[in-house]
Amino acid sequence: GDGPRNPITPKRAQVVCVLLAAPELVEAPLRDIAECAGVSVGMAKETMDTLRTTGFLEHLGSRRRLVRAGELLDLWAAAYPGGLGRANRLLVAGGDIHAWSAPAGLQVAVSGEQAVPGDIRNPESLVVYVRAADNGLPADLLIHNRWHRDTHGSIVIRKLFWRNLPDQRPRIAPAALIYADLLASHEPRQLEVAHHMRRQDDRLARL
Fold first, then answer.
1. Among 85, 83, 78, 128, which residue's Cα sits nearest to residue 108?
2. What are phi and psi of 59, to 5 degrees?
3. How many angstroms separate the CA atoms of 25 and 77, rounded?
4. According to the model, what pLDDT value does residue 161 have?
5. Exposed, middle or buried, 70 (CB in 10 Å: 0-12/13-18/19+)?
6. pLDDT tens figures, 49-83
7. Pick from 161, 164, 163, 97: which is nearest to 129 by CA?
């Protein structure tokens, strides 16, 4: 492509995602950042180093802080569809997107238009992140809801990679991911909600 290559590879994107979701993590030990992001400590370090060299992370004495975080969010969201969003997609399915539920013991988080119910009255799609065993397909979720693999389906099932995020709402994806999934839809009404969310949602606007 033209211009500088986006430094946000899929694994780095997982780290950036949790930093955007919980900016206080920037101060945490690398081991904690790695665990929250579902990556190795080496990858957490490499990401922090990259953020530092690209001017998104500042060291003040022994302290670290994100700078230009709003710009980082935009860069991260732009890289998402072709990067992490492609890498973490388990499958596209068809089925009922309204009366679905998760089988007991399965960790799920909703994203996209169903994560912003106040803004979209009649959602036509569902994006759900699932912590599947061995990173395989969540067969139990499909069977439970009679969903079926369908490349033109309106359900996108993605891999839930984050863990123990501070202040994270249960069963809802982090705000940055909801924003990225709305943008990735390329649908006018979802794009409109994404832009509104970028300005109005405290978790994004404060970045």
1. 128
2. -105, 125
3. 19
4. 95
5. middle
6. 999 999 999 988 889 999 999 999 999 999 999 99
7. 161
Reported as a single tens digit per residue, the pLDDT across 148-173 is: 999 999 999 999 999 999 888 889 99
| Of 172, 17, 141, residue with least CA distance to 87 | 17
> Could you tell me which residue, 8 or 174, shows the higher pLDDT?
174
Tell me what the mean pLDDT of segment 24-43 comes to.
96
DSSP codes of every residue in 18-42: HHHH-GGGGGS-HHHHHHHHTS-HH
Cα gap 22→40, rounded to integer Å = 19
What is the torsional sign of CA 38, 167, 100, 80? negative
Instruction: Spell out the residues 6+ positions from residue 139 whose beta carbon is closer than 8 angstroms to its own.
Output: none
Q: How far apart are CA 45 and CA 98, in angstroms?
A: 41
Task: Give the mean pLDDT of the chain.
Answer: 92
DSSP E strands in the chain: the ranges are 57-60, 63-66, 89-94, 108-111, 126-130, 148-149, 155-159
**Contacting residues for 164 by C-beta, under 8 A, at least 6 apart:** 35, 36
pLDDT score at 167: 83
pLDDT reported for residue 1:
42
